[in-house]
Write a structure and sequence with these properties.
Rossmann fold, 13 helices, Peripla_BP_I (chains A, B), alpha/beta, 434 Repressor (Amino-terminal Domain), Peripla_BP/Lac1_sug-bd_dom (chains A, B), homodimer, DNA-binding, six-stranded parallel beta sheet, four-stranded parallel beta sheet
DNA sequence: TTCTAAATCGAAAACGTTTTCGATTTAACG
DNA sequence: CGTTAAATCGAAAACGTTTTCGATTTAGAA
């Protein structure tokens, strides 16, 4: 029952551990005959190399860490899937941690992963995170690091993102194109870069089209959680504050769906009275009614590419090459549905 | 930059490696004075024990493996969240793998996890899986194993499930209670136990209420994927086959939502003409219109409890106790919404 | 046959930790 | 001061692998 070791194979064949090890790795300095013999008895005894020993000797674990703000989330679970699939192809396993949008947890988890000596770390930042010492620590320990989606521009590492500003601009421009004149924006929390960028894209589209930018039309998510309830709350407030709104660009599909629910409940017709555009293209957006116009955010692709960049850095570091960080910007597209038909 | 080892601390203080190690673990046979000294210099030098060496020595990795059929899935991502959170509390990390409902992949992934020498494995079976040698291999290697949701009854290990039969019975009974006489069932694929059990619950409810059980009203998911499209396809076929249907119990919310979409498109009124009950209580079910009556399946709880059972077995094995497997059945509840109002 | 080169093997160190057990020092007491 | 017990320490083995480098064997050529 106890697991087989090189030593046992060696004893069984009356040869040295060294030779067994080399035979299994097809070293040219062990004869074809013994190589074959060793291979056969190894598989007969169902030998599996002891990862712990291999790790210690080779100083690598073939495991990477992934820190993500939330797991139960259409976009992020797609990212996870992309990362796990791509990693498996290259022989890497993925440890997943959820930061719960908390900076403190994120810090602890980075520490945990470093102490486990993972071969690399993938991270999408918590909304709270405004200080980056923990990330710089990763870099200074020469552990490969790649950030995706919710990134910090200042941190020197590879990144995979979308152009949030451009996408938000596209979304807002679409509202303008179909005739909206007074467009509100439900934005995300203050800190995260993508929340800021989406807001800036919205603002720029207004200005470029000679529409007034009115700060009172921008609703910030104060609770930090982009929920269905948040959308209902904001929509309700918006109807009280402004009677003349004819379009809303909303930071996240889930919030947009909450907003639409509240608007409809209060008798607003979508898209006749108010057009709504979301962001992310959750599956849900396609099946509610009215179906939601939104920006497609390629989660799977983002996951795959993030791992690829990390893998590249792992390889480069092993070869002691100088590594140059890449910033990959993935394409987004506007998916037009019933919430903005004119 | 190179990482600090016990040896370096020992040399710096002019004491032995042994003492340093023991001091950091608060052994009583090293004086309080040296203990303090060691602790201080260790934290000063930012010492982190080398996991690889610790693993090799202690023969445990503090990592568990999780194999799941799909990641992008409301129920399963909730389970993941539950497991990861609970594991973290006990100092364990979680490696996640997606079997993609494939038996071959599942086998490979079990092998991978065993060769990584994880301290335990959590698994929800692929739909395809009908042979359990790979699982019995886990057990015979004395690696703790817990199955959840999609389980195999024959395999001797702890399990966390819901009573699918009872839940399906409840769902069907509800349809009967509101007056349905001809109730169809969209079931899952042939193999998985929960697909079978939900079907049996449906059938038993009919019989107990003196309603005819008509096999032609049961639609099997042949493609093996419980998708939105599957629901549309089945609903369309159902309308062709049977004109007198007044209720449908559907294996999964996603399929139910697809079915409702198709029904509405074809002019059927829900719930006036046909009442629909889903299964799982995805978030989506609460926000579509009409909102979907469904069975709440506690994903988070299932995840937490699965880890707890695994943890229990890990502890028991370490103490060489005899382990007795548990089968935990979690409660479900019927959530009544607009798709079945009478 | 003898010498040289190539082919084949194995001893040993190393990775960094944990833990056993024996050695040494200190304290306590008669 | 001598004896004993308690307190404190460290040498060494062990976990299982990888890899260097030297040793031995074999084959080939002269």
């Amino acid at each position: 029952m106890a697991l087989v070791t090189l030593k046992q194979i060696a004893e069984k064949l009356g040869i040295s551990i060294t030779t067994v090890s080399k035979a299994l790795k097809e070293y040219p300095d062990v004869s074809k005959k013994t190589r074959k013999l060793v291979r056969e008895t190894a598989s007969m005894l169902n030998y599996k190399p002891n990862s712990f020993a291999v790790n210690l000797r080779t100083k690598e674990s073939k495991i990477i860490g992934l820190i993500i703000p939330v797991i139960v989330h259409h976009f992020f679970s797609s990212v996870i899937k992309g990362i796990v699939a791509q990693a498996e192809k290259k022989g890497y396993l993925v440890i997943i941690l959820q930061s719960n949008e908390s900076y403190e947890l994120e810090k602890k988890q980075i520490d945990l992963l470093l102490s486990k000596r993972v071969d690399g770390i993938l991270i999408s930042l918590a909304n709270e995170t405004a200080d980056f010492k923990h990330l710089n620590q990763v870099i200074s320990q020469e552990t490969p690091l790649v950030m995706f989606d919710k990134i910090a521009k200042i941190v020197k590492c590879s990144k995979v993102i979308i152009d949030d500003r451009k996408a938000a601009y596209k979304a807002t421009q679409h509202l303008i194109d179909i005739g909206c004149k007074r467009i509100a924006h439900f934005r995300g929390p203050l800190l995260p870069q993508n929340s800021i960028d989406r807001f800036l894209g919205y603002k720029k589209a207004l200005i470029d089209n000679n529409l007034e930018y009115d700060p009172s039309l921008v609703y910030i998510c104060e609770c930090g959680e982009m929920s269905f309830e948040e959308g209902k709350k904001n929509a309700s407030q918006l109807l009280k504050d402004h009677k003349d709104i004819d379009g809303i660009f909303i930071n996240t599909d889930l919030v947009a769906i909450g907003a639409m629910t509240e608007l409809i409940k209060q008798g607003v017709k979508i898209p006749e009275d108010i057009s709504v555009v979301g962001f992310s293209n959750w599956f849900m957006a396609s099946i509610i009614s009215p179906s939601l116009t939104t920006i497609n955010q390629p989660g799977l692709e983002m996951g795959k590419n993030s791992f690829k960049l990390l893998y590249k850095e792992i390889k480069e570091r092993k070869k002691k090459k100088t590594i140059n960080y890449k910033e990959l910007v993935l394409e987004t597209e506007l998916v037009i549905r019933d919430s903005t038909k004119n």
